[in-house]
Amino acid sequence: MKEITVAADCDNLDKVTAMLEEYLDNAGAPVSAAMKISVALEEMFVNVAHYAYTDTDVPEEDRTVTVRFEDVQVNGSAGIKITLSDHGKPYDPLAKEDPDTTLSADVRPIGGLGIFMVKKSMDNVSYDNIDGFNTFSMEKAF
Amino acid sequence: MLNISKEANEGTLKIGLEGRLDTVTAPQLEDALKDSTDSVKELVFDLEKLEYISSAGLRVLLSMQKIMNKQGSMKIRGANENIMEIFEVTGFVDILTIEK
User: Fold this and answer.
1) Which of B25, B30, B55, B73 should one mutate to test binding to chain A, selecting the residue with the greatest count of A CBs within 10 A?
2) Could you tell me how many CB contacts below 8 A there are between chain A and chain B?
3) pTM of the predicted model, to two decimals?
């Protein structure tokens, strides 16, 4: 298990991604799974960085996000579980409606794809609010 | 990190991307494209050396596709298997013109 707590800021994305890549490397994850997992982490991290503490009175220094990486078994295969937790506004990203991926380019809204990509590329995703912490977990087999 | 190469030839602009197109680097691509697509009739993205794309990168491609639908055409070339999977999951295979 590895865990890191950083300010919820996109400037820290590289640091968290580097830690994930090292973890996946050590776990022997193949490149195709590693990219999907890395994209999923980016989407969820950026989501917290952009929205969790907006319009809250949480002091600047407490605007953090904790990211944890763990080995898990997913449907009988070796995999990774990533958990992000923050104490910003309660927000369930899974409650958001999926975008309509059949629309043409001209009418398709720009954005709204991040969480959808996470749902599609990871094996299990879940959200809970635990003691005031938004806790989002996702698992993927290698 | 993202390296962007630009090759303009009459009405064609070819953009080569190398590295990662993510939250951190997508604004660099937006900047590189700003003001340089005004008289472009054909925009080509060469993704042969692109290793990674997230939704921030897809946003840039979609907004360019919207612009090019009005003034010409846009093509994507050389996307690797992992990036193609992302285009498939998000329905981008249907809105982008993708060449092998």
Assistant:
1) B55
2) 67
3) 0.94
Q: Determine the 3-state secondary structure of A118 from DSSP.
A: helix
Do the Cβ atoms of A105 and B69 come within 8 Å? yes
Q: Among the residues of chain B, which ranges form H helices? A: 26-33, 55-71, 81-89, 92-95
ipTM: 0.90
Q: What is the total count of domains within chain B? A: 1
| A30 at interface of B, judged by CB pairs closer than 8 A | no
Note whether A113 contacts B66, CB cutoff 8 Å. no
Q: What is the DSSP string of A127-142?
A: EEEETTEEEEEEEEE-
Q: Look up the domain containing B29 and give its range.
A: 2-99
Would you state the pLDDT for residue B97?
96
Give Cα B14 to chain centroid, integer Å: 9
CB A58 within 8 A of CB A87: yes
Q: In chain A, whose CA is at the least distance from the CA of B90?
A: A101
Contact B59 A110 (CB under 8 A): yes
* CATH (one of 3.40.50.2300, 3.30.565.10, 3.40.50.720, 3.40.50.300) for A2-141: 3.30.565.10
Strands B2-9 and A124-130, sheet pairing: unpaired
Closest-CA distance of chain B to residue A12, Å: 10
Partners of B16 in beta bridges: B5, B46
Q: Say yes or no to pLDDT of B71 above 80.
A: yes
